[in-house]
Structures are given as C-alpha cells and as structure tokens.
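Weekly sync notes, structure subgroup
Attendees: PM, AL, DS (notes)

Item 1: joint prediction request from the bench team. They want all two components modeled as one assembly rather than separately. Inputs as received:
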Amino acid sequence: MDYWLHIGNLICIFGVLAISLNFVMGFAGLLSLGQAAFFGFGAYGVAILMTKEGWSFWPASLVAMCIALALGALLAVPALRVRDEYLIVLTLAFQFVVSGLLNNLNGLTNGTTGIYGIPHPTILGHRLLQPGDYFPYSVVLLVLVLLLATWLSRSPFGLALRTIREDETAARAVGKNILVLKLEAFAAAAAVAAIAGAWYAGYSSFISPDSFNLDQSIAIVAMVALGGLGNPVGPAVGAGAIILLPEFLRRLSISEQTAAPLREAVYGMALAAAMAFRPTGAIGEGFSLRGRRRAASAQADARTSAPASPAAAGPPALLLTGQGVSKHFGGVRAVDRVEIEVHPGRVLGLVGPNGAGKTTLFNLLAGALRVDEGLIRLGEREITRTPVHRRVSLGVARTFQDVRLFSNLTALQNVAVALPRPFGEHMHQLALIPAVLRDQRARETEARRILGAIGLGHAADVAAHELSYAEQKLLSLARLLATRARVLLLDEPGSGLDEHSARLLYDEVRRQGEAGCTVCVVEHNMDAILSVADEAVFMDQGRIVARGTPRELIGRPELAEIYFGTR
Amino acid sequence: MDLFWQLTVTGLLTGVVYALLGVSWGLIYGTTRTFHFAHGLAYACAAYAAVAATQHLAGNLVVGIVAGVLGAMVVGLACELLVYAPLRRRATLQLGIFLASLGILIAGQSFLQIGFGPDAQTLKVPSLGIQIWGPVAASRPLLLSSGIAALLVLALALFLQRTRLGREIRATARNYDLAELVGIRSPQVYALTFAIGSAMIGPAAVLFALDNVATPQMGVSAVLYAFIAVFLGGLESLWGAVIGGIALGLIAQWSSLWLPAYWQTTAAFALFFLVLVLRPAGILGRVAR
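Output from the run, pasted for the record:
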C-alpha cells in the first residue's frame, strides 16, 4: 500500500512540475529545456536552508520559491530577443550550468553525494513521515496548481500568452508588451516548479543532482508534449502516464535492468509518434473539466444589438507627422527624407510602384522599423523611438498585408484580445477573480458587437484559420478597430480580395475616416484608392514625388509612366 | 609553461573535432531547418557499429571506422526519411520536429542500452598509444580524429563550393521553394544532406570510443558540443562553426589553468550562456534580425 501511495505522491509532484512547464511551453509556445533546474532550486533551497541553517520547512520553501521566481524572470530577459532554436540552446546551457553547480559546489550542495537527512515538514502540528501522511497534501497541492493553471489559461493573461505563441509580431501590433508577458510566464513557471521541488525535498528527505539534470528536463517536456500542450489537465495526465509506465512494464515480468531503458524507449517513441499523429498531445487545448464553454446564448445577444459603427466614439484623432524621415538598408535609401502628414478625419492613400518605399515608410510610422533620421510625431508628442505596443496604446495601430491573425484562436478571441487595457492580463491582477471575470464578460460582449457590426457575427466562435480569406481580412480590420486606435494604418487591405469583398472592406475604412479617425492606406490598386482616399501621396525611389487628390494624381501622365515603368 | 602548451595542443585537437561536429550539425540545420537533436544518436550508433564490427568481423580499426561511417549514415538517413520528412509533409511546426528528434534520441539510446547492456563498451582493436613531442603529448586516436576532421571539413567546403550537388545544397539552404522552382529536387537534397552530415561524424565517434569507451549516452555531449560550436560561431557560415569549435576546445582546456578539471564543462556552458545572452548572433555573426 505504501508503495502505491509513494507512486501517487510522485505523480502529484511531477504533475505539478509538468503543469508549471506548460505555462511557458503550452500557453506561450516557448520551449524550455531548463525546467528541472528550477525544480532543483526549490529542492536544494529547502534542503540547504533546513540542514545547514536549521530553518523549518515552510519559510525555507517560501525563500526557495522566491529565488526561483527571480531567476525565472531573469532567464526570460535574454529569451525575449531570441528565436525558437536559440531559446532551446539557451535554456539547455542554463540547465547545464545549474547541473554543474549542483554537482561541483561541494561546500553548499555536497556535490554528487547529494543532501541526506532533510527533516520532514510539519503540518498542523504533526510531522509527516509515511507516504500515506503526505498523500492527501500532495493531492491538495496538485489540485491547487491545477486550478491555478485552469484560471491562468482562461484569463486574459493566458489569452495574451497564446497570442505570443501564435504570432509575436501581431501580438505587438495589438498592443501586447511581450517582454513583460514572457517574464511573468517564466517567473510563474519557475516558482511553481520550485514549489514542486521543495515538496519533493521534504518528502524524499534525500536529494542528489541526478534528479535535476537534463534527462529530467527532457522527461518533463515529454510529459507536457504527450499529455496535452496548452491544456491545464494534460500535463498532469502525461506525468501520470510516464511515472506509471515502469510499474506497468514490471507487470509484464520484464527484468529491472531492461525496464528502465524500456520506459525511456517507449516514451521516446511515443514523443516522435505523437508529433506525427497528435501534435496537441493526448488532451486537446480546448478540453476543459467543465465541458465546452457556453457560447450560443451570448451569440444571440450580439445579433440583436444594432449594427452601428464597430468602433465606439473616442477622443478626437491626432495628426500623425513624419519629418525628414529616412531609412537605409545597406547602401539603399529605402525612404529618403520624407515629409508626411496624415490628417484626422481623412483617408490618406500611399501609392507608388513596387520598391518605392511605401511599405518601409508604413513600417516606420507603425514602429515596426526604427527610423535612421527624422522625427515621427503624434499630435505634439514625439513617438520616434516608441515601441510598437506603446504606440498602440497611444492610438496608432496597423493591419498586415498577410493578415497575421492568431489563427488557432476564435474570431471572438482575436477581437477581444485587442481591446485596450484588459484587466487581468498581468499576474498581480489575477487574484481579483470576480473583477477579472466581470471585465472579461464586458470585453466579450464588446467584441461580439464589433464582429456583428462588421458582418462577422456568425463566425464569432470559429477558429480564425477556418475563415475564408475575405472573412480573415475583415477580421483583421475588426481586430484593428478593437484596439480603439484613432490612427489606423492599413497595409493593402484589399489585396487578394474579390471586388465585392473589397468594396465591403473599403466602405468600412471610409466610415472610419468619416467618424474622425486618421487613416493611412498603402494600396496598389488605383481604383481602390480612388474610391476610398481623400488625398494621396505618390512615392518613387524612397521620396514623395507628388501629392494631391487621387483624381489629380491619376490625371498626371508622368506619374502613370513611373507607375507602369514606361520611363 | 609546459602545462599551457599541453593544454593548447589538446585544446586545438579537441577543438577541431568539435568543429567537425558543429559543421556537420550546422550543415543539416542550415539546409533543412531541422533541429536535429538525434545527431547525437547517429554519433553513438557509429561507435556501437564499430564495436559490433570489430567484435564479429575483424579486430581492425579501418573496419571499425567504415562500420562507424555506415552506421551514422544509416541512422541519419532513417531519421530524415522515416520521421522528419513525413512530419514536414504534415506541416508540423519547428517545435514538433524538435520534440520528435528528442524522442528519437531518447528511444535510440535506450535501445542501445537494451541491446548492448548498460556497461561501457570498448573497441577491440590494438591500442594506438600516445604521441610525444618533447614536453607535449597527445593520444594518437585524438590526433587521428583531429586530422580526419580537418580533412572532412575542408572536403565539405570544397564540395559545397565546387560541385553541382554542393551548390544544390546551398541553394536549398537559401530558399527551399525557389530551389524547387528551378528544378532542384529538394527532398532528395535533404536526404543527401542528412547522409553526408551524419556520415562525417562516424570517424570521430569511433576514435572517441577507441580513446575512451562507448556508452549509449555518449551522443548527448557530442551534440551539445556541436550546438556550442555552431551557436558560438554564428549560424550563417561553415567557418563560423569551425571557429566556434576551436574556441570551445581551447577555452575548455585553458579553463583548467584556473579551475579544477571538474569545472571544465560547467565553465564552457557558463561562457556559452553568456555569449548567447550578449551576442545572440554568435561571435562572428551579424546582429540578429
């Protein structure tokens, strides 16, 4: 009996550990091969403080958790700048440094021998000794962490992390501060892993570096990948399966010597096979213990509301200006000392032949590229060096030519995530559960209203990648409007659309202009510019060569020559 | 001073072998964008193929090396054809392919352990002994491994520059779709890349096993050294990995001038971590996008 209780305790501990990794791996899509290191911080923190400093269990685990939290946040800082494959090697290097320290800092960690005789923790005045004493508390710990994970995954914080997983560039463009979000995800993952480690140290009363090495990190990754990425319950199921596997093999009367490698062989092959047949893990992301979310009723509400303009009235839009803006790529002056003013309440078309610098100028205004020379202002405020997500909160937002929706999120989520100032997007707000839920409901209602007004009410609960291309373009406009930006930068909104859909879309753009927004449209299609723009600037070779109404520009033969390349 | 020269010689020799590991991994990664963690499995299988061949066929080092080259190539090709290519056809994400690769490595290592037992295996060929030049000494297997590695890297560089197949590989590395458009059959190029990249590490694995022992887990450290070489030097070029590998070899050896030997690996990884943090594009690389 004690033996099975022991297995039960291990499943709970590793379940907690796997859930913690899922915060970064499943929600934010950042693979970390260093999770065992944070597990180790918790275990060694408790072991050292208890055996060498004579602390008792609870303060020791609190301190260990805080150390892990800080280190997790620190690890996220370089992780911000690097791409997928760098993150793998970065966390790998981190894992090896920590393993090396645990093995070699003999004075502190007793090196390879490990630490013996860690005192068992006391709860409510009695000391836990047998696996049976621990088991109820292990289950409580697992359930608490499961609830935390469920809450995180449903909260605005979880949704924001998922936008990072789907598309970082687009996440910035809807105003997400990626650094802070990643930092919080890594810190939370590290802290929860350290809690698992502390409990593990108290429970087993002996720890050695072998429990916190790369193999362990890989096993945790396998638990998450097999159990279910991005789902709160999946990793715990994966942990259970991987820990029970050797017990199952033992039943098949396989010798102990073969059983250990066989277990690894089975989960290694399962990992490779899972990527081919079920990349989301055993339990899909949408799975929830409480069944599917209620959707239909709320959808009905949205239909009844009047399809007014998608964007609510806001503060008056501001003048967006670029003064002497230049950008070089190598020796090429892609944008050369451009002066541009985008006026409120007007739609400005940015036209010109391929390679004229339209997209570069557009990216400079949106903040996706840094200007080399010159100033960009929004009203009186200079925003030349303001990062993309800050520009969005100041009211300057953009769409992408290749839409860049969050393709695995529903249309509703795509819009809701872009609404400004969400409550509960950062960890410290998440404790106020009722307030977060209230805000979330309000945001969903608002998102449905926007979708309804733009004509996508029927598609609210459809994943973005399942929509038609025209619907995706509309959705990207809805997402832009949801940011409440008053300066809208649209990159070829009509490209790839049939005439009817393009007209629908341009009608909406016009309405935004009439409602007082400042709109700048990059467009290839001259007909579209004629129908939508109040004024236009013509670019060639990085400079603005002509300004005027679209009709004036089209009437000028020398521009047509440039445009069609007949020079 | 003698110690310094000894460390420098050992560092250079191991560094060239690390460079080979890095170049071979970098060739595969650069061309196919596959984060081929299971490269370590090809390395371990090369050593075990040599152990088996020298036991059952002939106790001759050349037989061992040939078996090693074949073993590594078969494993590398099998990974590509049986796992990565089908995954790519299913449009699996980078992360998924990496996890699959990790799975192959774990499973393969375990099968080696089940097949050969958990004990370290030795290569049954006559020992090559040690080469001594005045105050400095080097084990002959390491010397040989290093020489072969240098030749292989040069041969690869020439192959990529001068031959049609080599240019096809570079073209595919640049732009998969465009390469296909101009008539380069990319799946075949991928398979070829895996075959070449894997076969290259065969001699190094066999000679490592001769100098030390073969264990199922020996590939993990090999593939880690490959990562360090590649990411230290920068992902852009073959020569980046060469410089990264030699730098790694020298730094790891020189670190024992100040630190006890058991800190060597940790020191190397700590330094690597710092480089990744401070210069994510590598020592030679241009600034990251």
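Discussion: Chain B touches chain A through 47 residues (CB under 8 Å).
Action: AL to compare against the crosslinking data before next sync.
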